[in-house]
Specification:
174 residues, Hypothetical Protein Tm1070, Chain: A, eight-stranded antiparallel beta sheet, two-stranded antiparallel sheet
Length: 174
């Protein structure tokens, strides 16, 4: 989709929200300087159940996100897009609140994220072997050999809510 937006103008795109859930991402390229926000909402029967905004994000190779989980109630998720030109080899590390290493997940060559590909996972999926109930608060660090665009979120079941969390450039151990 191409569009022309002049200085000071606002441009908005809205999907119909119909059909099956589709995951993906949007990429904006421009010759000038722009800023953007994506808004996601979910509703049933004309009632919005949750809504959140996602700020624009730049490419990173090393970053950290807050991890918070409560069994069957609260989960932390990460969504990544490989903005690089080669497959991305990614390492995830889970630390507890005292910054003790709990688990490491290194993506194998077979799992490498292709250029332009995206991946969205909850912490419990990334660290399937770890007991996240024992780590209700912590940090997830991510290291990649290619640039990644990233968002982090916290999802609660009851009451239903979705919150976007900040992504912190770099890792505490560097």
């Amino acid at each position: 989709m191409a569009s022309r937006v002049s200085k000071g103008e606002v441009f908005s795109v809205r999907t119909s929200g119909e059909g099956p859930v589709v995951s993906g991402y949007a990429r904006v390229t421009t010759k000038g300087s722009v800023s953007g926000t994506a808004r996601f909402s979910y509703g049933q029967g004309g009632v919005t159940l949750f809504e959140t905004g996602v700020p624009a994000c730049g490419p990173l190779t090393d970053f950290s996100v807050f991890q918070s989980s409560i069994a069957n109630s609260l989960e932390t998720g990460i969504a990544l897009v490989n903005t690089g030109s080669a497959p991305a080899t990614i390492t995830f590390r889970l630390y507890d609140a005292a910054y003790r290493l709990v688990a490491v997940k290194e993506m194998s060559d077979d799992e490498a994220l292709a250029p332009g590909a995206h991946l969205a996972r909850y912490a419990k999926e990334i660290f399937a072997e770890a007991d996240l109930d024992a780590v209700p608060l912590g940090i997830i660090t991510v290291e990649s050999d290619q640039s990644l665009a990233v968002i982090s979120l916290r999802h609660a079941e009851r009451p239903s809510r979705l919150v976007i969390l900040p992504v912190i450039e770099d890792r505490p151990d560097r």
